[in-house]
Amino acid sequence: MDKPAVEFQIGPETKIGALLEKFPQLEKTLLELAPQFKQLRNPVLRKTVGRVASLSQAAAIGKVSLTEMINTLRTEAGVQEEFAAKMDADVTAAEAPAWFKASQIAKTLDARPLLEAGEHPVQRVLQEAKTLNPGEIYELITPFLPAPLIEAAQKQGLQAWAHETDPGVFKSYFCLGAAQDKLI
Fold first, then answer.
1. Is the pTM of this model over 0.85?
2. What is the spatial distance between Cα 173 and Cα 175, in angstroms, rounded to a whole number?
3. Closest C-alpha to 148, from 126, 175, 118
């Protein structure tokens, strides 16, 4: 007995690259939802970020309701089923967490020139963050919220916090908690 074909799902974990591969016409919709998505036009960023960034992360980057984003994309793709999220993801907080102290910033990387050159700093940031001592902070400066990188850092046990300091300038901070050992 043949297995039925799996229908493409548009949901929080859908990767942007896969979505645009299946529905190329949705690029215009994403660009209309938030100006931050204009970076998807850069072929290098589209290949790298699009492959790892989910719609949930894109909603956070674009400061768009996840529910609104998914339902708009589903409508444009001709999907009838509506999506209802329990809560939209928010990877930024208005106030700095208790662990953040500017005096503890040990390393800073302004990744804007790297990104403009088509490089993605994920591996560099994660590698350099491994050298932090407990309580030290790594500062990353980017032109957008680096949600996939933040998620990867958290999976490695780093605490993370990000905020927009000026329009189009995000500072993300990563810290190995004082109670944790160095990452190996």
1. no
2. 7
3. 126
Distances (CA, A) of 43 to 6, 39, 118, 124: 28, 9, 9, 21
C-alpha span between 17 and 142 (Å, rounded): 21
Looking at CATH, the fold of the domain delimited by 1-90 is given as SP0561-like (1.10.3910)
Could you report the per-residue pLDDT of 123-141, keeping only the tens digit for each?
999 999 989 998 899 999 9
pLDDT tens by residue, 68-110: 888 999 999 988 888 765 433 444 666 888 889 999 999 999 9
CA–CA gap between residue 18 and residue 40 (Å, rounded): 13
CATH fold, domain 102-175, is Translation Initiation Factor IF3 (3.30.110)
Residue 182 CA to residue 147 CA, distance in Å, equals 23
Spatial strand order of the sheet with 159-166 comes to 105-110, 137-142, 169-175, 159-166
What's the mean per-residue pLDDT of the chain?
81
Structural domain boundaries in the chain:
1-90, 102-175
Q: Fill in the amino acid letter for 18.
A: A
Task: Give the phi and the psi of residue 174 in degrees, each rounded to 5.
Answer: -130, 135
Question: What torsion do the CA atoms of 157, 97, 49, 109 make, to the nearest 10 degrees?
Answer: -90
